[in-house]
Amino acid sequence: RDLALGGYGGPPLATVRYFYADTLVSQPLGDGILCASSATGASARLALASFDVLGTSALEVDWDSDPVTSGPTALLPGTTWYFQAWYRDAAPGGGATFDFSSAVSVRFCP
């Protein structure tokens, strides 16, 4: 039951929020593409994390707390979820102040 999410190439020391949803989309938003979304509200935010000075981050999923344990976003056997990172990107030159990582699909085996 271990699940760790990670990213690289992010802005050094920026805040990052990992989240997941039940639907894969391709919607331009900010300086990137939102890939994990839900028309039914089945999406959830995980704990905040930060990129280190090299632009890498990691987050271990806490299996003992919501939203992963109950409700419409419970990570149950037989379900598939799409995970993505949303991060602050205040690079000079204008544009939006946030961006997204690529998404990853995770199927939870029965």
Q: Tell me the helix content.
A: under 10%
DSSP helix count? 0
Mean pLDDT across all residues, rounded? 92
Spatial extent as radius of gyration: 14 Å
Q: Unreliable segments (pLDDT under 50, ≥5 consecutive)?
A: none
Q: What oligomerization state is this entry in?
A: single chain
Shape: globular
**Largest sheet at a glance?**
5 strands, antiparallel
Query: What sequence of helices (H) and strands (E) makes up the elements?
Result: EEEEEEEEE
Number of strands: 9
- Counting helices, strands and paired strands, the structural category is mainly beta
- Tell me the strand percentage band: over 45%
Which terms would index this structure?
110 residues, mainly beta, 9 strands, five-stranded antiparallel sheet
Please, could you describe this protein's structure?
The chain has 110 residues and is an all-beta fold. The chain is built from no helices and nine strands. Strands 2, 5, 7, 8 and 9 form a five-stranded antiparallel beta sheet that branches. The chain has a two-stranded antiparallel sheet with strand order 1-6. Strand 3 and strand 4 (32-37) form a beta hairpin.
